[in-house]
């Protein structure tokens, strides 16, 4: 029986990495008529009307009646986007959300990663590992069984067991109640693609030590389903975001958010 060569992928979602084909990765594909008539986005901002370029003020005497340029409108809309999103990030990871919005503004579609996001991802995985349905607890249970049976490494049967076990697990996602207020729910929420690798395994007479690498990727972008969902349609932050991304006059490019966590798992050999 062959011994598993490391590093080895033990799980990969059906969703692939770097998938540009999804609707939430589109930008600049909709006209004003489509946004206003088809999607009901007449009222976008409290600060500036993107359809007329005029600043909005309840104090008409203080309003700047000069028509704004698209660059001026974009700056006003991005500032408002951050301000009206504050309830979604006022507890916790505000720097992650702020950085993602700024990257949407200036990043021109380049993929995004950061140590803050990696730490949040690692914490998410570790906080969930006590659950019997977590991928970490399932991997550990399978390694406990198979590492006890061999000193030379894992067989292909062990790899198959890991793949089947993880496929039944609850993969890490930022959809906890707290994520509605700490910035992670709006920044990431579901993780579109996940890859899990066994990168190191040392088996001794007393037990084993393994390293598992989780790699996740999400899309910082909105699709039509997001904006037509009544849960989000009337939230101003999402209306601003959608227009900045999807209107042909703005066309700010969505991007991939990449995150990685390396975990160590160990177990003692049963006597």
How would you describe what is shown here?
The chain has one domain. It contains ten helices and six strands; from the N terminus they run βαββααααααββαααβ. The chain is elongated.
In short:
The chain is of the alpha+beta class and about 270 residues long. About 35% of the residues lie in helices and about 20% in strands. The protein has one domain.
Subunit arrangement of the protein: single chain
Radius of gyration: 23 Å
Total number of distinct structural domains: 1
Give the spatial strand order of the biggest sheet: 1-4-5-6
Average predicted local confidence, pLDDT: 91
CA-to-CA gap between the ends?
A: 24 Å
Give the count of helical stretches.
10
Number of extended strands: 6
Question: Are there runs of 5+ residues with pLDDT below 50, and where?
Answer: none
Task: Estimate what percentage of residues fall within beta strands.
Answer: 15-25%
Helix amount: 25-40%
**Element pattern in H and E:** EHEEHHHHHHEEHHHE
For the sheet with most strands, the description reads: 4 strands, antiparallel
Q: State the shape.
A: elongated
Which properties best describe this structure?
271 residues; alpha+beta; 10 helices
Fold topology:
Elements: E1 8-12, H1 32-38, E2 48-49, E3 54-55, H2 70-84, H3 94-106, H4 115-127, H5 135-148, H6 156-167, H7 184-187, E4 193-203, E5 207-220, H8 224-228, H9 230-233, H10 236-246, E6 255-268
Antiparallel strand pairs: 1-4, 2-3, 4-5, 5-6
